[in-house]
Amino acid sequence: MRFVLPKGRLLRGSLEVLQRAGIELRPPGERRLVERVGNHEVLLARAFDVPVYVEYGVDVGITGSDVVEERGSDVLVPLELPFGKCRLSLAMPNENRVDPEDMDGYRVATKYPNVTGRFFEKLDVEVDILRLSGSIELAPKVGIADAIVDIVETGTTLRANGLVEVARVMDVSALLLVNRIAQKTKFEEINGLVLGIKEAIENGS
Ligand code: PRP
After folding, report:
1. Who's near 77: CB < 8 A, 6+ residues apart?
2. DSSP bridge pairs for 36
3. Which ligand 1 atom sits nearest the alpha carbon of residue 135?
4. Most buried among 51, 85, 114, 115, using CB within 10 Å?
């Protein structure tokens, strides 16, 4: 099978959960992006791109539900995984805080323009969305945005930048993704993997 795993903070949990299910993978080393391990191939990609690889042909992937929601990729999600737990929240400078319902005309910086757009559409509030690629907390700090929608795990980054959470947009967790065609053509292998991970999670091993 071909696996695409996310670089960064979800990589360790991803390798661990697969190992507990009996699949011992080694990520590619320094600067290499593909590694062959026995019958398997491991690719490393940016977490944001994992759903795209899985939609277009890689058998199995792991990434956050935030990314899957934002990308809207056509992939199967057979399992939620027990790591990568955090939340996507709306935050703003403490001194200017308002309720999301009162944010008409506000500018919101985020890596998640689709999820953010849907959140405000549901509230019938029109905001201007400013798409950035990282260090989102900087935008309100320097005055180019009024608020942010970003990942909050411990809350340390928000506090360090004088921001407070005003609403939870979604709860986030790592997910197992499966390519639609692989689910049919590699049914036995993929079913075995899903059951193996499920059992490992249930046994807390
Ligand atoms: C993420 C996220 C926040 C921070 C939240 O950033 O975007 O900035 O972690 O974690 P905390 O609540 O524990 O402080 P990441 O380090 O992944 O990089 P980025 O800013 O480039 O997105």
Report:
1. 68, 175, 176, 177, 178
2. 41
3. 20
4. 51
What's this model's pTM, rounded to 2 decimal places?
Answer: 0.94
Q: Residue 157 CA: which ligand 1 atom is closest? A: 14
pLDDT tens digit sequence for 33-64: 778 888 899 999 999 999 999 999 999 999 99
What are the chain's domains? 2-84+173-203 (3.40.190.10), 86-171 (3.40.190.10)
- Give the DSSP per-residue string, 73-112: ---EEEEE-SS--EEEEEEEEGGG---GGG-TT-EEEES-
Q: What is the token pair recorded at 162? A: 């004088």
SS3 64: strand
Would you say the CB of residue 46 lies under 6 angstroms from ligand 1?
no
6-10, 168-172, 201-205: which range is least confident on average? Answer: 201-205
**SS3 state of residue 170:** strand
